[in-house]
Please model this.
Amino acid sequence: MSNVIENLILCHSKDNVATARSPLGAGTLLRLTKQKTIVAREQIPFGHKVALQKIRKGGPVIKYGERIGRAIREINPGELVHVHNVAGERGRTKVKRIGHRV
Amino acid sequence: MNFLGFKRPDGKVGVRNHVVIIPSVACANEVCNAIALKVKGTVSIPHQHGCAQLAFDAEQTARTLIGVGKNPNVAAVLVIGLGCEVVNSSMVASKIAESGKPVKNLVIQEVGGSPKTIKEGIKIAKAMVSFAFRLKREKAKPDSLILGVECGGSDACSGLSANPALGITSDLLIKEGGTIILSETTESIGAEHILARRAINKNVREKILEIVRRTEMRALNLGLDIGKANPAPGNYAGGITTLEEKSLGCVMKGGTGKVMEVVEYSETPARKGLVLMDTPGHDAESMTGLIAGGTQIIAFTTGRGNPLGSPIAPVIKIASNSYLYSKMKDNMDINAGEIVTGNKTVQEIGESIFREVFRVANGKLTKSEIWGHREFAINRIGPSF
Model:
């Protein structure tokens, strides 16, 4: 179940992205745990995702504890995570990844 | 929790009491519309299909029209055909009549043109309305309810607030013996493993994987990315990045129960509990499949704002965020955005949707009904010939 942490919603403990609960300006301090904080490197619109840790190019982007796509370039903590740096892998002609291993 | 509904001759229970004028083919649309315009208490369901369709589409159109006529929210049906169409109107009428409700059929070429058919149709529709108005609501058990769960115009909040809350509602209704139909196969792509793990048996598990594979391959065989059509531009603008992300949020609407059965578009489930229906993500087409499968009420989550309704079933609109709720209050019934703001929990909103489902079952009008939203669209598989 999702976990509301101040200005973010974290859906699952495995996630490497979290959702902005309100529009977040660049430089906003984002608290992940009591000890750990990161800084929003750019503006994160309401409902959009911010990276919580470094995601290497080609690495999985995890939300709901599940893979929602892969990074098409390196993503740093605090960066906006969206179509400019993430590609889906399903229903796409250029990606051979049909069907899911169950 | 019991409710007050309209008991039909086949034992099913309606939450509405419509007299429906069904064209078996697009050629009869305006005759049906003219009758519905003249007789208060009737509704027509114009559509594009019923002729020049290949077998699988003709069969799907017929199954949909018959299913809509048999829906427990319908008290009586007038089916109008042209006379030369593929989806024969007397066949549609006789299949609906198997439910025991009053059904009549008119054929424009036999009656002798539009004005004569309209005149005759008005006479029949009036008698059907007087019949329907004599029916009274009676106490009914929740196990007679089928709730369709739908999402349209989703945003990244949908999967965090409205959809998991509706999942709680689904679990609660299933606990009361009711049925949930989760549809929109396109929006299971990337989340099918979650549903497959919850299949009641091997056959259901394979069918889940099969409908998803079929949908994905249909686009890929055309050499096209699904992502150009679904997610839609508004989904991306709302923060959804990939089809997988949209799907993982989408399937939460069905709750956590075992998947009991997978049915085809417009097919009536044989089992109770959580059922999957193979429909596209296109909301009007998906909802039409749901009502043809016997769904009496649809709960519809949205993040971008969607006004769609149905001519047969009340549609409860659930906003995923408070910005949308305050901006489109006229179209929204429930605000799940309070989960995002931290004022309410997913459980609390899920319970309030559950209570709203029963208020609506008892006759409370939804916003979609108040504004007269009656969108109706039959899914088609192949081209016209």
Observations:
- The two ends of chain A are 22 Å apart (CA to CA).
- The mean pLDDT of chain A is 89.
- Chain A is about 0% helix and 30% strand.
- Chain A touches chain B through 36 residues (CB under 8 Å).
